[in-house]
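Worked example 2:
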Amino acid sequence: MLAILVSMAAAHAPTSLDFSTTCDEPTYYQLLAGDGSANPNNLKYNAWSGPKAKGNPDSFWSIKGSWTKGKVNLFGGMGDLWSVEPTSGQKVKSIKFTTDVRVYTKEREAILVLMQDGKEYVGRIKPHGTNDQKWQTVSRTFRDRDFQQVIPIDPFLSIPKKQPKPGHPNFDQGCKPFQMLVGFIENKTETIEASDTIDYDNVNVHVELGN
């Protein structure tokens, strides 16, 4: 009887999950790591809406970071905390992340934040080589090794010569649940005082599951 129940559960397990938002309203925000310099926790967000919103189209999300000169550990995200809970026999085959973005410097990347088992990871998409502040659509399909663990920098400690090796999320069969949102990251050992912004609109995440 137990074998039959397990078989029935497997038969009804979803083979894919889709999450999307047109970024029309303010939503959940989580600061995952704060800048320990003169501007603590200096990561701001807003959801621009109304007749003057210039998204793609209408409303959009905007995440801005500001930092002082020195070591920077600024990492956060916003979204609805999309949750994925594979069944015991499932694995995550891939995650496709598609979004409209607007960048203000060409170095800024679209970030998909993934949180699993108390650790944070980022999947990055580098927008087209431009910073003309026009909306553009970017897309990438991630496997587990395309996500890199974020190892925070402590602004008050010297950087060890041997850095910890970043890990990757576990997408194997029986992997632990995880959550996702879009994000902003600036995690450098040395930087000048500056600020930067990335705008998100029409976010779509497709999670492909399998056995």
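The longest helix spans residues 2-12. The CA atoms of residues 116 and 178 lie 5 Å apart.
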